[in-house]
Design brief:
6-stranded mixed beta sheet, 25% strand, 171 residues, alpha/beta
């Protein structure tokens, strides 16, 4: 089974072994979606998203996780263009992979490949001892955010449920 507790990542059938489709919602909580968050910098957005994970019981040391995500971000920006940043970190105080998402009321000026201001923050955090699953999810997110329709759906979301639905949309 995958860390989200759903279908196995590898399965077999009459045509051999295949990789099951990844459902990004398996790594989220309904409370982990913030629409038009008022953060004025990336540290504030990361803090707000980590707080949603802490409230759901996924993080025992929220301040430590914020520090680790920002340490990783300072080592190299995770703003990938298209108005998206995917701050991520592995952390001892987390026992399963988690995603939390925010759209921002005011876009942030963060250096990126295309120079566009960031208005979507997708936080990805996972256990320190499981880099493989985190890399799989990070790769999936990186592919997903290259789809303008996907990003348009996230930006159009007027509430947390709509943002959650937009994250689940296939590209």
């Amino acid at each position: 089974m995958d860390p989200g507790g759903s279908a196995p990542l590898l399965d077999s059938g009459p045509r051999g072994v295949y990789i099951a489709r990844m459902n990004l919602l398996d790594y989220t909580h309904a409370s982990g979606f913030l629409v038009r968050d008022g953060a004025t910098d990336l540290a504030g957005a990361v803090h707000d998203l980590v707080e949603t994970l802490a409230a759901a019981g996924d993080v025992s040391d929220p301040a430590g996780l914020v520090d680790e995500v920002l340490r990783r971000e300072n080592a190299g920006s995770t703003a990938i263009g298209g108005g998206v940043v995917i701050p991520h970190a592995r952390f001892e105080g987390i026992d399963r992979l988690r995603i939390a998402v925010a759209t921002l009321a005011t876009p942030l000026e963060i250096p990126s490949e295309d120079g566009l201001p960031v208005d979507i923050v997708i936080l990805l955090v996972g256990p320190a001892d499981d880099p493989r699953q985190m890399l799989r999810v990070l790769a999936r997110l990186a592919r997903q955010v290259r789809d303008e329709g996907f990003l348009d759906g996230m930006r159009a979301a007027g509430d947390a449920d709509s943002l959650r639905t937009a994250l689940a949309a296939e590209s």
